[in-house]
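Dear colleague,

As promised, here are the two records you asked about, laid out in our usual form so they can be pasted straight into your sheet.

NAME FIELD: protein one
SEQUENCE, THEN STRUCTURE:
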Amino acid sequence: MTLSAEPAVRKPDTPASDRRGALDPRRFTAGAPATVAPLVIGGQVRDHTATVSLVSPADRQDRFTVAVADAELVAEAAAHAHTARGICAALDRHTRAGVLDTMAQAIAADRDVLAQVITREVGKALKDASGEVDRAVATLRAAADATAGLVGREIPVDAVPSGRGRRAYTRWEPVGVVTAICGFNFPFLLAVHKLSAAIGAGCPILLKPSDATPLSTLALAGYTLTAGWPPAAISVLNGDAEVGKLMVEHPVVRLVSFTGSTTVGGKIAAAAGAQLKRTVLELGSNTATVVAADADLDHAAARCAHGAMASSGQSCISVQRVFADRAIAADLADRIAAAAAALTVGDPYDPATDVGTVISEHAAGRLAAMIADATTGGGTLLTGGVRDGVVHPTVIYNPSPEADISRHEAFGPVVAIYPFDTLDDAVAAANSLEFGLMTGLFTSSLTTATYLVDALEAGGVHVNDCSNYRADNMPYGGIKGSGYGKEGPESAIREMSVEKVVTWHR
């Protein structure tokens, strides 16, 4: 590959010895002395004259300022990453795993302050933010274990005539520079998933957080640098879609990992494909859960209510469509509504709050319109709705199949229950959309479970659980409009690696 001349590396605004201080998460909590959240360019903490002002969704009043990247800074970060390829690839697995373990220990120690940062930038309840940090720690530890698990295999080339007198095996090598673009809903965890896989595989990484939620990703870069990852091998580039486009299209980038909407994912796939770059896309959904007549309704209702409302419903696998056997559908809907109504809605920083705010006033307005469309079109509002700009846990019974909530992703604390007459009807409805990320099912019948596991079109099926379940060490990804490729430490490390075959002629 022929590259243009690398830009001169600018002098860092913060000395290397003080990187962690500038990226300390305590600087990004509400009430901390006002500072401009910086960029990280090749491990150097960098201020920039271009900034944006963001408002915290937690209270719609707390404002913070963030430096944003431009084309020159993207090019500089890419140049650093390109020079770091050999350094990262030369790190043995023990060293890579050690970086991940060290990060996990430091992040676990800062759990409470990181949860405060996440709540500030996303507006989710503090208990959900704390859970996100816990999951990030578990992901880092799983990635440390998976780093040693990516092994080659012997190829029996002597099984074909041309292989006589030869031996062959495969080995895995880093794919090269990775661009990782994250969504706003789990800003810390999504960045950890992508970063930990890059470290495990030995790849330099260019990280772009959502332009709405940059703070926790900047803090993550601080933990990465102090854990011993080569400074040139990590950059955090805040900014809008144009910054992301530059990061995707830069010629040194060999793989793009993206979490976000299906629409944006399609654009990224087209841009990356034009340059024959590999992509891992975790995109949108409108997830389905099927509840058979013989299910444990108490368990199904509790799991569906939690799966719909956790993290303010802002999850791509949040329970949105529940298909229930007509014999139990109304009863199940009432149970889900009762569980949802019992949740505490309020100040996201209050440890007693179950459901915080959604990401923006615009998102709240969109959800209000979706709820109104569902109820005016024949659905019954059992609980919830939008009051004074706050989206309360919302349960709707039997809206039209043509309603927005039936066809599009809500991305909020809203769930609809639909009665069905036969399992075939439930499967047809669940599979009718151009999504296929995760599904769930509840039944006490092995025959029913086996049928649904085979028939439901998705990247994963959870038996006697809802769609909104994810163990962070499992393979995770969708089909159809929900994307392709797999996340989860072991799978993502493999995605960021290249299998090389080696033959020996005796």
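NAME FIELD: protein two
SEQUENCE, THEN STRUCTURE:
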Amino acid sequence: MNETGYTEAVETARDYYNSADADTFYFHVWGGEDIHVGLYEADNEQLAEPIAEASRRTVRRMAELAGALTPATRVLDLGAGYGGSMRFLAEVYGCRCVALNLAEVENERNRRMNLEAGLERNIEVVDGDFTALDFGDAEFDLVWSQDAILHSGDRETVCAEAARVLKPGGRLIFTDPMQTDDAPTDRLQPIYDRIHLGSLASPAFYRETLGRLGLAEMHFDEHPDQLARHYARVREVLIENEGDLREKGVSGAYIERMKSGLTHWIEGGQKGYLTWGIFVFEKGRGD
């Protein structure tokens, strides 16, 4: 542990996402509102569909799978980034949302965007670590997460905390870049190095772990092709906007590392070592 009380893995992710380079890149290239994998519609992979549109499509699809959403629904987003998903749920369904995220720089952007949207009363932005949630048992109707759990060095604890704060009958809905159940782990080392961890989760990991915690799988909307497609699209936009990013102060070293890192994700997806999709689990009612 360090002076913040965060584990080394959490502090590494926090430092990264708080950096000026990362904040500028994710806000201006990855989509700003939604910094997660998108669902692309066009059949032709060469068509340049906007990242923001594909990413928002993921949010809408997750909302469809989340069950009945009303102004009474209390939602916790684990790893909320800039908070686009919670703004969508608050604006469209009136949900009461908590956006928990470890990067204070992203959280400040999130709060400003909530104010600009007039949604600050519906959304509480919390600085925090999703392995140690400062909430009581059974406080939330819905726990939501998008492409964030992979950054944790203790994914079992993240799952346990999500299950703990869910009400009986509540749902956990999340996406995560995963290795396939039979992936050759030696081929994934460049990706492990990229996230500064020794593994990725797999569908089998989530099924086993959440099953032990009393959550039943309701749905897995699996789209392994979208993972490689999304990272390829992000890399294209990065290259197209490289000059503008440099003018905004993003270092050349960061841009080159990002190009290389994105390539590893693209190749892992294309070779069938990686998968991605929307998981939905429901907590038992105990009756």
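A couple of things worth noting about protein two: The mean pLDDT is 92. The radius of gyration is 18 Å.

Best,
R.
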